[in-house]
Amino acid sequence: MPTFVQILDFIGTFAFAISGIRLASAKRFDWFGAYVVGFVTAIGGGTIRDLLLDVTPGWMTDPIYLICTGLALFWVIAFGKYLIHMHNTFFLFDSIGLALFTVVGVGKSLALGYPFWVAIIMGSFTGAAGGVLRDVFINEIPLIFRKEIYAMACVIGGFVYWVCHALGCESYICQIVAGITVFLSRILSVKYSICLPILKGESK
Amino acid sequence: MPTFVQILDFIGTFAFAISGIRLASAKRFDWFGAYVVGFVTAIGGGTIRDLLLDVTPGWMTDPIYLICTGLALFWVIAFGKYLIHMHNTFFLFDSIGLALFTVVGVGKSLALGYPFWVAIIMGSFTGAAGGVLRDVFINEIPLIFRKEIYAMACVIGGFVYWVCHALGCESYICQIVAGITVFLSRILSVKYSICLPILKGESK
Amino acid sequence: MPTFVQILDFIGTFAFAISGIRLASAKRFDWFGAYVVGFVTAIGGGTIRDLLLDVTPGWMTDPIYLICTGLALFWVIAFGKYLIHMHNTFFLFDSIGLALFTVVGVGKSLALGYPFWVAIIMGSFTGAAGGVLRDVFINEIPLIFRKEIYAMACVIGGFVYWVCHALGCESYICQIVAGITVFLSRILSVKYSICLPILKGESK
What we know:
homotrimer, 204 residues, mainly alpha, 0% strand
């Protein structure tokens, strides 16, 4: 039986893969290319984290991520035309994935003995770096650098994790509170169009 | 005396470097930039594989890859105008390189004790990821995501390796059969314009 | 008390971060995005080097790089409009950073027992790869491939390090001479518009 966290991990991977595959389809990639972009979106952040932490990336020890991406591709091929009407559903899943991946990244880094400021960065990589790789592959300026609160939500969640931990909370309490913080930061920032100030551009 | 595999490795590196240098020249890179792009095309896939497998990349233990890229650059500078007429020759070399790099990647991963599904992915990285890095550097959407059977040929070759191994074949038999499979998949898919279906694009 | 090298490291990091943040502002990134691009520009080269050398990246053991990037962002936000008139000052800082990062990269690789030709490549990565990552993120063809002597200055400095070492110089003499070589190569090549030949482009 999969645990509750594994089910959330499955949902997050699926949602991230869908997001990569949909953008790939907008660029007219073939099935294989779309699969690769979906997979990179789903596991890219965790892989960069694991390379930096010098541990074996999770997807190399469990084929579930490959299978998940395959299901996501099948889903887009089969139900692509209905997906447009499910924008809100996927936004919700994507936000759940972001929250979960962040918490997993922070927790893994702390378990390996890294200080909190490293763990917060690693949590943000886990949540947001997959989307950056996706945008590099499809040759777009990464969206997270220009729009809405996205990676910033991971950073906020990481700080909340830190505060909870400093207040002496149990590990699972820290994780739940941090996850909810990421999720709400993301949802509310989109709902109320909260964004960071644009850096005033000098002409190059 | 170099072994047969080393000679094939030399040819593959040379062909991959040429492919990077030619695309760099089309973008009007200088000699140094073209060298770097050629080098990355040749060793990029193997480097990503070795980072993931947590071993020292091959090019850091043997300067042959640097020398090979240097020869490729010299070749393009000296004989550039004749290269256009040698398209078929380089396509052949490139396909040999793809086949060899895939087999090397699969073999190295299995030798390190990884399961077959990881080995197939690593073989595909070895063969195809250099070209993806090349296309990111020259700011194009990676070709392998949109055109022909390329990385797919690596995956097919990896599966054939697996089947041969499961049937109890010797290691060198698996390698030869898998290599020929990659080579033929690539050649035949180009000759008969076989490609994967494009994912139907929703407008973003 | 910080040492002399630490102060130079601080200056180099600051200058590299400014360079990333300025380019990000020209693309209208938000504050967070600009911070990330600045940080990647400053620590990207050293991180790639450390991944290849299989050691923990320096910025994961000391928060000074994060703080430095924060100061750089504050600087651009507060004094952005004056920065244009400080182009020469930043060019100077950037060249100091390039020189220092190269020397640090060569020294670290030698200390880990790698041969000189690997150390020269690692020095060049340390100096120049951050700028390549920056250009990939802002979706431009990396400048160093097309303009002026930049990464080439790192390679020249690395060779000079090697020569000094072969002549039996003390380690700190090698470092000073190599650093000055990188610095002067960069400054003089820009002053006298020295560049490498462009590779004659075939039309693709």
